[in-house]
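Hi all, posting the design record for the shared folder.

TITLE: backbone redesign
STEP: 1 of 1
STRUCTURE INPUT:
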């Protein structure tokens, strides 16, 4: 959320096994893309999953994704 409480993006992850999750989506509305916010969101996802006992996070990235350098 932005400082005004506006939704600016989202993530979606699924459990693959008892200790592994897959990050299937990480998205920001265009205005918020390229501002380094993905790093914070990914850290938050990692923290939440770690608290649930997940110690491995996988993801697939489309080679044509303009944010490929982030991953």
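Okay, here is what came back for every position:
SEQUENCE:
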């Amino acid at each position: 959320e932005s400082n005004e409480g506006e939704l600016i993006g989202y993530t979606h992850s699924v459990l693959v096994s008892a200790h592994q999750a897959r990050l299937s989506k990480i998205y920001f509305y265009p205005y918020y893309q390229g501002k380094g916010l993905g790093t914070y969101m990914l850290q938050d996802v990692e923290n939440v999953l770690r608290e649930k006992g997940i110690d491995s996070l996988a993801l697939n990235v489309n080679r044509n994704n303009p944010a490929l350098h982030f991953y």
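COMMENT: The helical segments are 37-51.
Let me know if anyone wants the other runs.
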